[in-house]
Write the structure tokens for this entry.
Amino acid sequence: MTIKIDVDMSKCQHYGQCVFEAPNIFRLNNDDKLEYVAEADDSERANVEAAIDVCPMQAIFIVEK
Amino acid sequence: MTKPVVIVGASMGGLRAAEALRRFGYAGPITAIGEEPYAPYNRPPLSKEVLAKEVSHEAVAFAQRPATEDVNWILGTRAVSADLEHHTVTDSTGQVHPYSALIIATGLRPKRLQVNNSELAGRHAVRTLDDAIALRAELVPGARVVILGAGFIGCEVAATARKLGCDVTVVAPGIHPIVRPLGVELAREIQRRHEAEGVRFKMKTSVSDLIGETKISAVLLDTGEELACDVFIEAIGSDTNTEWLDGTGLDLSDGVLTDNAMRAVKTNGNVTEDVFAIGDVARFANPLFDGVARRVEHWNIPTDTAKRVGQVLAAKLNEAENWPAVLDETFAPMPSFWSDQFEMHILAFGLLALADEVKLIHGEIEGDCVFGYYRDSKMIGVCGIGLRSTVQGYRAQVGTQS
Ligand SMILES: Cc1cc2nc3c(=O)[nH]c(=O)nc-3n(C[C@H](O)[C@H](O)[C@H](O)COP(=O)(O)OP(=O)(O)OC[C@H]3O[C@@H](n4cnc5c(N)ncnc54)[C@H](O)[C@@H]3O)c2cc1C
Ligand code: SF4
């Protein structure tokens, strides 16, 4: 099982709060911009949900298939 | 019939509490009573981009999760009293709600200026979506906007109003905006950047009266100066929404005092078993810093405290194996704050206001920079303009067990 992760980059302000909750999925690159993995193992779901909670812009979504 | 968990306050804290109860395995009924007519929504955009762009519930609403679809949301209804002995809450329609546990998430409301001409029209505050909608309608190019208060919200609104083409003056008693948490050096720089964008500051003074026939046309400062004014915005701090708990015996001296499991504490020192408080209204000691109970008005606190309650309460109601051992786990959430003003992206961790020493640790004050905040030489906070990765790099160092 995998989950699909989507970040609305028109909303994201690159605060990087998500990075602490799901470090395997989200990171800030050298330009302080968000980079993320769009597909991950289901075991990451809880971390990604925590990242959704802490995203100030509410920009992160799990795309249910 | 099983009594529901009753949550009072249907904002971020209330929503996150319902979600956390489900996540930690509580499957029973949940009722959430909220005074505002809207499903839970995100407040920070109200002083920032939403105010500049489209102000609607849709633009700021929190996504609803399947796990909380069966929560009984009673919106547009206020809790008026609680009876802790009989475990009930009474709402503004007179309905009595028995509870198995009560979660207090009633947050704050803006303090308002008390002056002779208080009843004049044209006064605003920014806490709710309705506040933002009313304010947005008046922020037209050329409007003369006076903002009383130079904290984060005052400064954000100033920047947004300026971007919308308004003529903006900030009036506040401090020496610089946001000086109390940030320290003089960074606060002075923020003022400089605001001024470079055309915001005027009248510091070390306040508003002593409002002038006008039916609507405000000017404000009178303590200095005797009169400022022409079409839109008057008060951003002078907040009061806690706890009047509905008067007479319950809870310690309400500044919000609801709780223990480390977010259980409400009475004035006689007794910890309640089934009453919890979360979010802006909760006052608790954070072992990251010390044993002093404080309210923390940062956005991550409702979520973190709600999770703590979800964990503790689900274990209790489910009579789970980890009950009551879960009470002994240490809860020490890292306060986290951000703010956007013009091109400044401010990010902070910790409790900056506790610092006895503030110093520049990266970059240059005129550009992107990071400041460290120290108490007794220990880092208790970090704050940067830009340089987010650098700020984040310090997060793990912030706060030390007392
Ligand atoms: C304009 C603005 C900008 C902000 N920007 C930032 C930011 O950039 N960064 C940051 O970290 N934080 C920011 N914050 C702070 C953050 O939004 C708050 O910390 C957060 O909203 C607190 O959530 P809460 O659920 O505890 O309380 P609240 O959001 O205040 O919710 C309390 C709810 O309870 C309801 N209520 C009150 N009394 C009763 C009653 N008797 N019965 C029923 N319901 C009741 C209220 O109507 C309200 O809906 C900002 C806040 C505002 C207002
Ligand atoms: S927390 Fe949200 S806004 Fe911040 S970087 Fe992650 S997705 Fe972007």
